[in-house]
Recover the amino acids of this structure.
């Protein structure tokens, strides 16, 4: 995987298309596994810190404890020292799309009467 990261980084196409954020997002599931990756979102590289959003405080604590191991795996996969630290932030819960009350009440009136 280390070789693959170097090949991607050194190719002409990667200089035009892939950013450090893209590379970090691509290697994240390989570094932490599918189970952990499913509970994280919005991975962004800010200078040398990888900022990862997690579901809740429990995930934040658990991943913080594993951060040195995760950093080691990320460095192996990335093949560089771009990532020096990881910060886990609790994601703001996203609201599901909802119907407006006005449209809902009009629909109910037409169905019942």
């Amino acid at each position: 995987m280390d070789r693959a990261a170097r090949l991607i980084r050194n190719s002409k196409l990667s200089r035009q298309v892939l950013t450090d954020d893209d590379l970090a997002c691509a290697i994240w599931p390989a570094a932490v596994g599918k189970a952990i990756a499913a509970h994280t979102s919005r991975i962004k590289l800010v200078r040398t810190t990888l900022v990862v959003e997690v579901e809740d405080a429990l995930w934040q604590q658990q991943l913080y404890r594993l951060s040195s191991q995760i950093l080691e795996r990320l460095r192996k996969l990335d093949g560089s020292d771009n990532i020096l630290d990881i910060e886990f932030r609790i994601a703001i819960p996203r609201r599901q799309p909802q119907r407006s009350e006005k449209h809902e009440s009009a629909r109910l009136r037409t169905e019942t009467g």
Q: What stands out?
A: The two ends are 64 Å apart (CA to CA). The longest helix spans residues 20-32. The chain is about 55% helix and 15% strand.
